[in-house]
């Protein structure tokens, strides 16, 4: 039996590059499948406003 456990923690600004990479990949994936309105068509990492509002 597998007894692997997972620990969660609150994210912070140090996680931003990784999160943006995940969202960039999601954008690419959904656009490639003809759903450009789901996540937009531009990679989130290219947003000139910098840090998204949901990162505190």
Show the helix and strand layout.
Elements: H1 16-32, H2 36-39
Describe the protein's architecture and organization.
The chain has 56 residues and is mainly α. It has a domain at 13-46. It is built from two helices and no strands. The chain has helices spanning 16-32, 36-39. The radius of gyration is 15 Å and the shape is flat. The model has no long low-confidence stretch (mean pLDDT 85).
Task: Name the shape in a single word.
Answer: flat
Mean pLDDT: 85
Helix content: 25-40%
Structural class, by secondary structure, is mainly alpha
Uncertain runs: none
Number of helices: 2
The largest sheet is:
none
End-to-end CA span:
39 Å
Strand content: under 5%
DSSP, total strands: 0
Describe the structure in brief.
This protein is mostly helical. The protein is 38% helix and 0% strand. It starts with 15 loop residues before the first helix and ends in a 17-residue tail after the last helix.
List keywords for this structure.
56 residues; mainly alpha
């Amino acid at each position: 039996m597998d007894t692997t456990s997972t620990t969660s923690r609150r994210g912070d600004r140090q996680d931003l590059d990784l999160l943006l990479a995940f969202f960039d990949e999601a954008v690419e994936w959904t656009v490639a499948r003809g759903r450009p309105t789901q996540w937009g068509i531009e990679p989130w990492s290219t947003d000139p406003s910098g840090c998204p509002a949901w990162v505190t």
